[in-house]
Specification:
heterotrimer; A alpha+beta (about 150); B alpha+beta (about 300); C alpha+beta (about 750); A: about 150 residues; alpha+beta; Ubiquitin-like (UB roll); DNA polymerase, domain 1; 2 domains; 5-stranded mixed sheet; 5 strands; about 30% helix; B: about 300 residues; Uridine Diphospho-n-acetylenolpyruvylglucosamine Reductase, domain 3; Enolase-like, domain 1; 5-stranded antiparallel sheet; globular; binds flavin-adenine dinucleotide; binds FE2/S2 (inorganic) cluster
């Protein structure tokens, strides 16, 4: 039996009727058509589905959508504001940190959460924050460089 | 994966539901174990009961000299970031900071880690070192179980079908103590332990006499466990050459690891010795640095 | 080189903004009204006869719209070259994971439930899972009808060795006779997955007129089109393939997987169908890298000259050979490295077994060969007590030499890469600590060949479009095409557009792969742009009052304007030139095709590692990678390819392995199949060595595949340098190091002492 669920995604409220067993990832992608969050494994291993739940990065594939009711959900589609890219997005574009792009949304969300609490992270802190995100294309180097290229003045 | 979802708003309500559903309702805390099993079809559930709304189980509370109480729903990242935990059980904070990576640490809970009863649970060894007490609640009432008695086997605990883990109480050890938890994986993150070893060492005034030692291990037997004979090698001993090696040797004898996709039994046995030696040295160094202080 | 207009610069990728905002559409993102979800039922047995399939219970499940088995699909066997794989197993399954049936249902849950309701009765048969067993005379045959298959270079009968290739130069017997020392060793490499993050996905929609639209994560839309048309039995004009962004390839996205099943399900259900492989399915039944057993034998003089070299490789192809576009793997030819050896004999054998089928994975065959050859070079050097760098340097090819297999090569640049890498790395410097090690390895790989076409258009406002079917699975190929056209036309990058276009709208392109896109697609785009430029110049000649026969000589272009070189201030815009030609746009199409390549690209990698001998844990600290790239059209993109290849190569060397028991993969998850996380990424110094003539536009060479080759042996050699044990079986796990140390008696005191210093490093 489907149940009503209200989700707050990127500042918008969505009233949905969904099956209770559906994951946040599937609901974002298939019901709200926010397909920027990717499914690379559906098991918590790759981080491609990373979204921020109340500001913290989580694997959307391991969250039941219904349990995210009334919480603040931020997806990659909400990272740019008013048509202006987030500095991280700009840095990724500028530094060539994007290849196939499949891992990119999840990695940007992990890094956004890092910078929100730690605006001037060390390389080691960047690596730790990204450790739950796999990327097969870039070897990560240019991503580290992109974060390090940001203005670190607090 | 198809099921009915229960979302109780309070512990009392959750316990009532659990009384009715018993095994029929699987408890969902962070979901990082449960949902993976359900998706794989390794587990089926008629209903899933999310504890997400039970904010009453999400706390870390210092109880002064007695110890620290941790709600079952506290996430690994909150445990790792807690000042109270960092000060009083640094090895637990270290263990939780080594679970998966940020996303898993934000979702996964301390209670889930224990109730899942994986032989590899990272939070288990530090809690075993501290003789943690678990409060199990049901509509019938509450009971306290020592963590040593909690695990029965892989994915099996003493939890009754109507029970929920409510709280983990960590008694405050007295005196000068140092403890650490070391985990071996092939990568630096996103690893289920090949072997995990925690060691706690209590010093008796002198920097050279160990009044008590505790060794706890994960991924080396059907459940996380203490290496009591290895501990005995240390107890009331003066530190001397070869003591640590001997304790590690004995601890390895107490393990019964298997060969699986992560490692062979032989390598696991070797690594118990290595990790045990290193953890003991680190625990000793920490104990020596430890200036006994009063807890508020 | 500095006065280029658009090439040679690390410009941002044309699709980067689309990707960082989450707007880029991949195949799994396609949602169509009424779309159904398809799932495949797979065999749990590596070899069995299918006695009976009963789909009735699955069909009766509410929400199920179609169920298909082999009886519902074409009997054609498909393949990229050798055609041996059925769309669904018919009568027999040949590997655990092979598809036997498929369902389409209103949602994924229902489709999965329906799979459980399909009853398949198997009669298990003995399975050949050991490649050496499979080669024996009288072994069970994986394919009884091998001789009837198309795509084999010559028909072979009653064998599992479906292809045997040899390369020879000189007389090895003579060469070995001249040697002071003959060494021999065997190396084994494991089966690894390409590890692209996007699992295979396909969507098929059938129009009311029967025409077929396909969305696919395949990187070669034109091949999807022709294969689909052939399977369905339609002219290719009735099949349209709409490309999506491709989430990584590394050779694994070149064959169709579920596309035909989507078609049959869609036809039966009357609705569009999407199938996305789960990560587990990716591990059970995609097309990973061939495992190999490689035997090398070398004859050397005391002074360090290599006199003879013999190599043989066995590649376990698994149950089907369909997943590789060539019969064999290019790697066999690489089994004598980049060295000057007078007498060489190489053999490669490709063998059917009941293991999962293997395919192309980043530089097919090369990482296996490179691991063996470059580990062996160090082993020989150690025996001769010569420094491994010096031993390589003494024997390295130089310009004018023939390749080890006797082919002519232009611009041999191996020594340049060696000295660059040595200079920038810690080679020859003091070890920072006791268990630090440094290792070197070299490799070579030719630029890929193939066929591409491109259309270049300059519009009425002077902006330009490129229409190309070239795919870009993340390599930056489409950005590079824009840079090439920008350079040719001197139109700023912002005024050039390249969109993903379907197979009806783009001219033919063979697709990405083999490091060909910059070269082949690049040449076609460059030539088309130059044609357009000629026409613009001709038109401008009238406006600039320049004699037509002198115009191409006297008129130059810049920033979308044409002008007489003698009078740059008087300019004609492209817009005016288009108008002046009496047209709304000026367009040209060029096809470029090349099947023979004399160019190869070289690389040297130096790995610096720290090994914890007690745990066998290896931390790769730094990689210095020098690549002979000819000319870097987009240096950041080239570096990105190298960095990605290095980290992938570290995974191959240390972590990754699809473990199997009785032919079944036992670690089909990303928990236990271990890709490097960001925390395993070392510091990487990339050195782009320019200047050697390449075949691509602006003398560029290719870069996509080579970085994955020398890395594993460089790491293996560094481990040897650090702790003195030689592991010749990949991956080099901690366990193997610890066991080797125990056997060699090198552990003990030294190792324990090291453990003391690093108690916190666990
Ligand atoms: C990618 C990935 C990486 C991981 N890495 C690690 C790692 O490094 N180390 C490690 O130890 N684990 C790891 N895990 C496992 C898991 O994240 C942890 O065990 C986590 O602590 C489980 O907590 P949870 O809240 O998510 O549990 P859930 O999945 O919600 O529950 C786990 C089990 O416990 C039961 N349960 C949960 N809470 C209660 C309660 N209060 N009362 C009674 N029963 C309860 C559930 O019914 C279920 O059976 C990993 C998992 C994933 C997916
Ligand atoms: S899809 Fe969620 S972690 Fe991979
Ligand atoms: S860019 Fe392709 S996986 Fe990261």
């Amino acid at each position: 039996m489907k149940i009503p669920v209200t989700l707050k995604v990127n500042g918008e409220t969505y009233d949905l009727i969904i099956a209770p067993y559906r994951t946040l990832l599937d609901v974002l992608r298939e019901e709200i058509h926010l397909t920027g969050s990717k499914k690379g494994c559906d098991a918590g291993d790759c981080g491609a589905c990373t979204v921020l739940l109340d500001g913290k990065p989580v694997n959307a594939c391991l969250v039941l959508a219904a349990t995210a009711q009334d919480r603040e959900i931020l997806t990659i589609e909400g990272l740019a504001r008013n048509g202006k890219l987030h500095p991280l997005q700009e840095a990724f574009v500028r530094e060539g940190a994007v290849q196939c792009g499949f891992c990119t949304p999840g990695i940007l969300m992990s890094l956004k959460a890092l910078l929100d609490t730690n605006p001037a992270p060390t390389l080691e802190e960047i690596k730790i924050a990204m450790a739950g995100n796999l990327c097969r294309c870039t070897g990560y180097s240019k991503m580290f460089k992109a974060v390090e290229s940001l203005d670190r003045s607090p | 994966m198809r099921f009915e979802l229960l979302q109780p708003g309070s512990l009392a309500q959750a316990l009532e539901m659990k009384k009715d559903y018993r095994e029929g309702a699987k408890i969902l805390a962070g979901g990082t174990d449960l949902l993976v099993l359900l998706k794989d079809g390794k587990l089926r559930a008629q209903a899933v009961m999310s504890l997400g709304r039970l904010s009453e189980l999400n706390f870390i509370r210092s109880e002064g000299e007695r110890g620290v109480a941790i709600g079952a729903l506290v996430s690994h990242s909150d445990v790792a970031a807690s000042r109270i935990i960092q000060q009083r059980c640094p090895d637990l904070a270290e263990a939780c900071a080594q679970v998966g990576a940020a996303q898993i640490q934000n979702l996964g809970t301390l209670g889930g880690n224990l109730c899942n009863a994986s032989p590899a649970a990272d939070a288990a060894p530090p809690l075993l070192l501290m003789d943690a007490l678990l409060t199990l609640a049901s509509a019938r009432g509450e009971r306290r179980v020592a963590i040593h008695d909690f695990f029965l086997g892989p994915r099996r605990t003493v939890l009754e079908p109507d029970e929920i883990l409510k709280e983990i109480f960590v008694p405050q050890p007295a005196g000068r103590r140092g403890a650490t938890y070391l985990k071996l994986g092939r990568r630096k993150a996103m690893e289920i332990a090949i072997v995990g070893v925690g060691v706690a060492i209590h010093l008796n005034g002198s920097d050279r006499i160990v009044s008590e030692c505790r060794i706890a291990m994960s991924s080396v037997a059907p459940t996380p466990l203490r290496a009591r004979r290895g501990e005995a090698v240390f107890t009331n001993q003066e530190i001397r050459d070869g003591l640590i090696e001997e304790a590690a040797e004995v601890a390895a004898e107490e393990a019964s690891p298997i060969s699986d996709v992560r490692a062979t039994r032989g390598y696991r046995l070797d690594m118990i010795r290595v990790l045990c030696r290193r953890a003991a040295r680190e625990a000793l160094a920490r104990a020596r640095n430890h200036k006994a202080e009063g807890w508020r | 080189m500095s006065d280029f207009y658009a090439v040679g610069k690390s410009v941002a990728r044309v699709d980067a903004v689309t990707k960082v905002t989450g707007a880029a559409g991949y195949t799994a993102d396609v949602m169509l009204p009424g779309m159904l979800y398809g799932k495949a039922k797979r065999s749990p047995h590596p070899h069995a006869r299918i006695a009976r399939i009963d789909t009735s219970r699955a069909e009766a499940l509410p929400g199920v719209r179609a169920v298909i088995t082999a009886a519902d699909v074409s009997e054609v066997l498909i393949g990229l070259r050798i055609r041996d794989v059925p769309l669904l197993a018919r009568r027999e399954v040949r590997f655990a994971g092979e598809k036997v049936a498929a369902v389409a249902a209103v949602d994924e849950e229902t489709a999965l439930e329906a799979l459980d309701l399909i009853e398949v009765e198997y009669q298990e048969l003995p399975a050949l899972i050991d490649v050496k067993e499979a080669m024996k005379d009288g072994a069970l045959l994986v394919h009884e009808n091998l001789h009837t298959y198309s795509g084999l270079p010559k028909p072979v009968k009653k064998t599992n060795v479906f292809f045997h290739e040899t390369f020879s130069k000189g007389d090895v017997a003579l060469g070995f006779a001249q040697a002071d020392l003959v060494l021999e060793h065997a190396f084994t490499t494991q089966i690894v997955h390409q590890g692209y993050l996007e699992p295979h996905a396909a969507v098929v929609d059938i129009g009311p007129d029967g025409s077929v639209t396909v969305w696919s994560s395949d990187k070669v839309p034109f091949r999807v089109r022709s294969l689909m048309a052939e399977i369905i039995g339609m002219p290719i004009t009735r099949v349209r393939v709409i490309p999506s962004f491709v989430g990584g390839d590394f050779g694994g996205k070149g064959m169709i997987f579920d596309e035909p099943l989507c078609y049959y399900l869609a036809r039966k259900a009357g609705r569009p169908v999407k199938m996305v492989m789960s990560r587990q399915e990716e591990f059970l039944a995609a097309s990973p890298r061939h495992p190999s057993i490689i035997r090398l034998k070398a004859g050397v003089t005391k002074a360090g000259a290599i006199t003879a070299w013999e190599a043989s490789a066995l590649f376990d192809s698994g149950a089907y050979a369909a997943y590789k576009p060539q019969v064999g793997l290019g790697g066999t030819k690489k089994l004598a490295g980049t060295y000057r050896i007078p007498h060489v004999h190489i053999e490669g054998r490709y063998v059917y077994t009941h293991n999962l089928p293997c395919g192309h994975c980043r530089a097919p065959g090369d990482p296996q060969a490179s691991f063996a050859v470059e580990s062996f070079m160090d082993m020989i050097a150690a025996k001769l007590k010569i420094d491994p760098f010096r031993f390589r340097w003494m024997n390295a090819l130089e310009d004018g030499d023939l390749s080890p297999t006797g082919e002519p090569w232009r611009g041999i640049n191996i020594k340049e890469t060696m000295s660059a890498a040595v200079e920038k790395s810690g080679w020859g410097k003091a070890k920072p600590n006791q268990h630090y090690g440094i290792g070197i390895a070299c490799a070579e790989r030719p630029t890929g060949t193939g066929e591409s076409s491109a259309v270049v258009i300059v519009n009425g406002d002077g902006s330009a479009n490129i229409i190309s079917g070239a795919s870009d699975p993340g390599t930056g190929a489409r950005t590079i095409l824009c840079q090439i056209v920008s350079e040719a036309l001197k139109v700023p990058m912002e005024r050039i557009t390249i969109n993903l276009v379907d197979t009806d709208s783009a001219p033919y392109d063979q697709g990405a792969g083999g490091g060909r896109t910059t070269f082949v697609a690049g040449q076609s785009a460059y030539r088309a742009a130059m044609e357009v430029r000629k026409e613009l110049v001709a038109s401008a000649a009238k406006l600039l009052k320049c004699a037509p026969e002198e115009a191409q000589e006297l008129i130059d272009v810049r920033d979308g304007f044409l002008f007489l070189k003698s009078e740059p201030a008087k300019r004609v815009s492209y817009a005016q030139a288009v108008k002046g030609a009496g047209k709304s746009q000026i367009m040209a199409e060029e096809t470029f095709s090349c099947n023979q390549m004399e160019d190869t690209c070289f690389a040297t990698h130096i790995a610096e590692v720290e090994v914890d001998p007690e745990r066998g844990y290896v931390e790769v600290k730094r990689i210095t990678a020098a690549h002979d790239i000819g000319f870097a059209i987009n240096p950041a993109a080239a570096e990105g390819q190298i960095e990605g290849g290095i980290v992938q190569g570290i995974g191959f060397g240390l972590l990754e392995e699809m473990q199997r028991v009785d032919g079944k993969v036992t670690n089909p998850t990303l928990t236990d199949y271990k890709l490097c996380t960001p925390r395993e990424a070392p510091e990487i110094i990339t050195l782009l060595i320019e200047g050697a003539p390449g075949a691509g536009p602006f003398q560029a060479k290719s870069i996509g595949e080579l970085p994955a080759c020398p890395i594993a042996p460089a790491v293996a050699n560094a481990i040897f340098d650090a702790v003195g044990v030689r592991i010749t079986d990949l991956p080099i796990s901690g366990e193997k190091i610890v066991n080797a140390l125990k056997e060699s008696g090198l552990s003990g005191g030294k190792a324990v002492a090291a453990g003391k210093e690093r108690a916190d490093a666990v």
